[in-house]
Structure formats: C-alpha cells, structure tokens
Specification:
alpha+beta; 415 residues; DNA polymerase, domain 1; 16 helices; Double Stranded RNA Binding Domain; 3-stranded antiparallel beta sheet; 3 domains; hpI Integrase, Chain A
Length: 415
Amino acid sequence: MARNLISSDLVLKRIKPQAKTFRISDGDALYLLVKPDGAKWWRFDYSYSGKRKTLSLGTYPDTSLALVRQKADEARALVAAGTDPSDVRKAQKARQAVQRETEQRIEDGLPAIDSFEEVAREWFVKHAANWSETHSSKIIRRLEVDIFPWLGKRNVGEIEPPELLGVMRRIEDRGALETAHRALANCGQVFRYAVATGRAKRDPSSDLRGALPPYRRDKHFAAITDPKKVGELMRDIDMYSGTFVVKCAFRLSPLLFVRPGELRKMEWKDVNLDAAEWIYFVTKTKTNHLVPLSTQAVETLREILPLTGMGKYVFPGERDRDRPMSDNAVRSALRRMGWSNEEMTPHGFRAMASTILDNMGYKQEWLERQLAHEEPNKVKAAYKRDTWRMYQPERTAMMQAWADYLDKLKTSVQI
C-alpha cells in the first residue's frame, strides 16, 4: 500500500480549513483531519479482532510529519504482533498517572503507591483495632524504625529475598536477634496481605526460613505466661485467617492444653459433646485421659462438626482426610501471626496454662492430672486404677474457669 503521499511539511502548512471537515491521506491508513476551525488532527485506522478502529496520533504542527509517520509505524508493528495499539496507549497513560501521583505523594511526604510502606500501613490499620495498644505500638514502631528506611519506598511486589535478608541482617548485627525474628514475621504478614490484595505475586519472607540464627532463651519449650502477652495471643488466634480446620485447632490449643500430637490426632469417636468430655488413650503414659470440655471448646467443636464429622479425625489433613493434619499446622499458625518459635510453641500452651492456673491457686494434683503427667512414683502408679477420672468435678470447674479467664484476657489485660 502506498505511503508518504504528503510531500512535505510545507504542504501541510498551506492547507486552509473548509466549511466541512476533510482529510488528507498520507497513505496506508494514516491521514490528517482538517476541522472547520483550522485544527489539524492526525489519525491512523487499523483493524483488530475483525473490528475497524481509529487511533489519534496528535495534532499538527505539534506532531510533525516525520514524527507521526514514526508513530504510525509503531502502531502497525503492534497490530502485526497481535496487540491493540489502543490498549498500549491506555496502559501507558495509566502508568504515567501512577507515576505523577507517586511523585506528588512523595512530595507531600506520603508513601508511594504500592510501596512496601503504603501496603504495610494499610495492613496495620486494618488489624490494629483488634490488637492492644501496646502490641500495635510495638509493631508500627518496629516497621518505622527497622524496615521503612530501607524497604519503605520499594514496590512491594519487586522486593526479593536477598534484599529482605539484608534488612534483617542490619537488625541482627546490632545484637537484636529477637527483634529481627519479629520483624521478619511482620514483613511476612505484610507480603501475604499484598498477595491477597493483588499487589504482589508471592511472599519473599518464606524463602528466608532458617536464614536467621535461632533465638533461644532456654532449653525448655517457649511459652508465654504473662497475662498481657496471653491476651495479645488470644486476640491473634481469633484473627487467624488460615483454613478453618487449622483455625479450630488453633482455638482449642490454649483451651485444652493437651500435647500437640494428641490434639491433631483427636478422633470424633472419643468426643462426647453432650457430656462435654473428650476421653482418649495417651500413648506416652499408656492410660486413658479425660479432658473436660468448656462451653467455649464445645462451641468450637460444634462449628467444625459439619465439616469433618463424617470422617475419623476432628482435624484431618488438607490433602489426605484419612490422616490427621500436619504436626506443623499450629506452629505455622503461630509463626504466621508473628509469634516466633523462641517466644511461643504449640507445646508452650501446656506451660502457659499450668503456670497461670497454679498462680490462680488451683491445686497441683488437679493440674498434674489434667496435664496427663505420668506418676513419678512407680510403686504408687502400680496401685492406681482409673486415674483418668480423678478430680473430675474439680477439673471440670477448673477448665471452664480457665476458658472464661482467657476470654477476659482478649478484651482486658487488667485481670
């Protein structure tokens, strides 16, 4: 098809407007529209997906003859490659608008659009209402002091694991290893929120598992025993947004404080919701064990009953429902909510309950029986029978009082 039919810019300058709009063709679907008011618009016609479309390429003389021919060639190349030039134009305008807004936000002292800081602050606002003031202030300060100065302006979807690790190393190098673990957990929460809201493809913090040295306080299972921290943990458990099966197991962990392996292997045949009892065989002590179920525990079990009640396990595996859920499920839930392995573990719920209930004045023999601890005196153990029902009325009252106490901690730390 013939091209370059307009001989020069001089020809265009001499064109006079007429009473009606007319066009001057440059060939191959490129032409100049001359309006009655003298305005001269460049237009390019093309066919895409069987439809006839027109692309505006600017006005003359702002867009010269040479420049408009270059633009037309670029449009022809896009069409030949199966791309609509109009879509490309819209995408370019959108990017330019975002860039202008980003520059303006930076000028106004605000975080850039889709930057880590913007997404982190949005995540924080959505969740802070459910946290204690102390807990929320620690998180935002941690982000503002240790994260935002280095990652705040970066696009949240472009941050790679080595870059994130570098920021964690800064914290570690000043001797604040526990803070580094907490900061990494918070960053993971922000990245997962970015993925959920369509601003990132993945969470780079998941690739840093094991990259930081462990922070260990002592050789025992980490457990929270301070009521204020327990209140924070209980609120986080309520906020957990993972699978419903794990959420229910997470809820029951502090209420029942059984061994983690016993909880995940809980079977419906051993549960009596009407009697509010769970009776199962403890392989560690080779005896039966009775767990009185508080009203809160019964409520959680009734919630999950329609989902898993037809199977063997209360908490079946995600891929294989004939097997119990992963032994790492509750631990992962703790990590996801920002509680490091050096701060709280699934087994730590036992120490948490034992310590606090002891401080509340409950008898040690009731606690030992509820924890299903083995009788240290082998002679006494040989003569004891049906120990699993010992102190049943007292333990039932204790378990209900414990569940009520945890509920109070969710809304107040002044207990």
